[in-house]
Design goal:
Layout (H helix, E strand, L loop, with lengths): L1 E4 L2 H14 L6 E4 L7 H18 L2 E4 L4 H8 L10 H21 L3 E4 L9 H15 L2 E2 L9 H11 L11 H11 L19 H16 L4 E20 L3 E3 L1 E3 L9 E4 L1 E5 L2 E4 L5 E4 H8 L6 H6 L4 H12 L8 E4 L7 E19 L1
Parallel strand pairs: 1-2, 1-4, 2-3, 4-5, 12-13
Antiparallel strand pairs: 6-7, 6-14, 8-13, 9-14, 10-11, 11-12
This protein binds iron/sulfur cluster.
EC number: 1.17.99.6
GO molecular function: 4 iron, 4 sulfur cluster binding; epoxyqueuosine reductase activity; metal ion binding
Pathway: tRNA modification; tRNA-queuosine biosynthesis
Length: 360
């Protein structure tokens, strides 16, 4: 039986039940989910499905991440709510491709882990499955592992197995609607030009779950815990000298400007820190930055495209301000300008939660 898999939270419990209910069947997993956006989230879900299938001794195949085809298929349905017309097209696409894969592999039965998701309509899935059966002869196994306490059992398994628990269905459109309803920043869509791994980003989770797999390979015991913290994202930043001369400049993480703009000039300097006469802004030279961080950046541009890690930046910020809670702008420039300056900085801090591994 070919089992289309959408994520480990749905698949681990589902595959365990299938193994129990169909002991004669050789199960093969098929991860085909081009709906998942961004690609890093796709990689993260696939990583966790790989771990889950390995634990259960189930072979796993990966489908093509044909995101453009998926976008074409749902065009015009972007504003549909979950369980609406877009989801129907999304299921059809994933199911039909999986069913074709089953045909190609000579499998006679197919099912999908989407059947256990509370966000999916089982009737909708069954309709598509039965239709394919009629046309191609691959039987759709529409098991119901949700009722009779199934959903509670699934939650228990998710917790016990420490599976990666995503908090949105998968696509860009569903995520946009969800974040709008929650009035929450859609920080999943940030992709800094620097490639820096941002706190509580998908990239950070991907690193953490890869590390978790390494720990398991070495039989090191661990726990994944959650932490509340103040997160930060920078939307844009510009330092202008005089009327329109844009200078190369880098604003350290956790630099914020409540009114997004400040105008003034450097008032004085002490211990290599140059104090602006507005909004507690500080400027430092790249030379000083290099000295303090034992780095060798040749230009601020180089720093912009290849910054320190977030943690290193925070440590440096703390050194300059002598506190963990400073949110004033710290700007790195090649030379301290003696002209009138305009600082445009759009950045936000917000309460957030992130996962962390602790070794037992
Ligand atoms: S909300 Fe989920 S099921 Fe619906 S279209 Fe997006 S990814 Fe597919």
């Amino acid at each position: 039986m070919l089992v289309h898999i959408c994520c480990s939270v749905d698949s681990h419990f589902f595959l365990e039940k299938l193994q129990h209910d169909f002991p004669e069947e050789k199960l093969t997993g098929f991860f085909y989910d081009p709906n998942i956006h961004p690609y890093s989230e796709y990689q993260l879900r696939y990583l966790d499905v790989q771990r889950s299938c390995k634990k259960l001794g189930i072979d796993l195949l990966e489908g093509e991440y044909d995101f453009e085809n998926w976008i074409d298929a749902v065009r015009g349905l972007e504003k549909e709510p979950e369980k609406g017309a877009r989801c129907e097209v999304c299921f059809d696409k994933r199911f039909i491709t999986s069913a074709k894969k089953a045909l190609e592999l000579g499998e006679k039965k197919i099912t999908t882990t989407l059947l256990v998701s509370p966000l999916k309509s089982q009737e909708q899935l069954k309709r598509v499955g039965d239709d394919f059966h009629e046309k191609h002869g691959v039987e759709f196994i529409a098991v119901d592992y949700r009722s009779g306490g199934g959903t509670q059992d699934q939650s228990r398994v998710t917790k016990e197995e420490q599976l990666y628990r995503q908090d949105y269905c998968g696509c860009l459109f569903g995520l946009t609607m969800q974040r709008e309803q929650q009035d929450k920043l859609m920080d999943e869509m940030f992709s800094p030009i620097s490639g820096q791994t941002l706190p509580a980003s998908i990239e950070e989770r991907l690193e953490m779950y890869s590390y978790r797999n390494e720990l398991e390979d070495k039989s090191i015991e661990y726990k994944i815990i959650k932490q509340k913290f103040l997160n930060y994202r920078q939307f844009n930043f510009k330092l202008i000298s005089g009327k329109k001369d844009v200078l190369d400049a880098y604003a350290l993480s956790y630099s914020t400007l409540p009114r997004k703009k400040a105008q003034g000039r450097i008032e004085f300097a002490a211990h290599n820190i140059h104090y602006f006469n507005r909004e507690e802004i500080k400027l430092i030279t790249l030379e000083f930055f290099n000295k303090q961080n034992s780095t060798n950046y040749k230009s601020v541009k180089e720093l912009i495209y290849n910054p320190l890690s977030y943690e290193q930046e925070l440590t440096f910020r703390k050194e300059i301000n002598n506190t963990d809670y400073d949110l004033s702008p710290i700007i790195v420039v090649e030379n301290i300008p003696d002209t009138k300056l305009t600082i445009q900085l759009d950045a936000t801090t917000y309460e957030d939660t992130k996962e962390k591994i602790i070794i037992l």
